[in-house]
Amino acid sequence: MSLTEMSLSDVVKRQYEFKLRAFLGVFSSMAGVQLISLLFSLGGVTSVGTGTSSGMYINISYYSADMVVVFTMIWIFMTGILITTKAVRYDDFTFVSNRLSSNLANILFLLTASAIGGAAAVTAGFLLKIIAFFFGDIQYGLGNSFLEAPAEFFIGLAAAILYMILFASLGYLTGMIVQVNKIFIFLLPTLITGIVVYLGIRNEELATAILDFIFAESSLFLFAVKTLLLSTLFFTGSIVLSNRMEVWK
To answer: Transmembrane region positions (predicted)?
Structure first.
């Protein structure tokens, strides 16, 4: 019997550091996903063209990191599911741990991955514009870089990270639900599809209100409050669900 009693914070710290080393491959997959989304974005997000009476034609293409952010949100959602799998939980047996410490370490890892993923997605937007400017048929370009509009840059960065945290928590909750009962592997997609179809056909106003509540908030502060509150609820629900498992395996 060990005479050294470790505190919860010490256990969580060790597990968190272990997960950072063990899941380096996750960040490699993030780079691959963002590279693919960059390729899809090379043609521009939207394009508008107009002609003049003198025969001149002007085409305006808009380049942004929107698609990169969307792909990264999918990546962090899948990462949230991945970290709840049985194989990953077996790794925690190398530590003197419990469900709470494992969940806290997982959440810290997902928060770290969200920050890295969000920052990388926003930065990829600048890389996209550079590629388009040097290799595309662009005569004149405008953009909101850090030097041109630092406030907009940091707002976009914060919003991207908040989106990643929200989708990471949703993925973690989804993964935990599946671990509680494997039948949800089939029930969840059916349930989600049914809700989407119902809202899209029978109750468009409610669907619009839900989307506007999360995705159409003009105030960064209110957006942060909403996303962090929802993320906290999702993470808390995941911890509660993990306690319903008979054994931590």
So the answer is: 20-40, 60-83, 104-133, 153-174, 183-201, 221-241
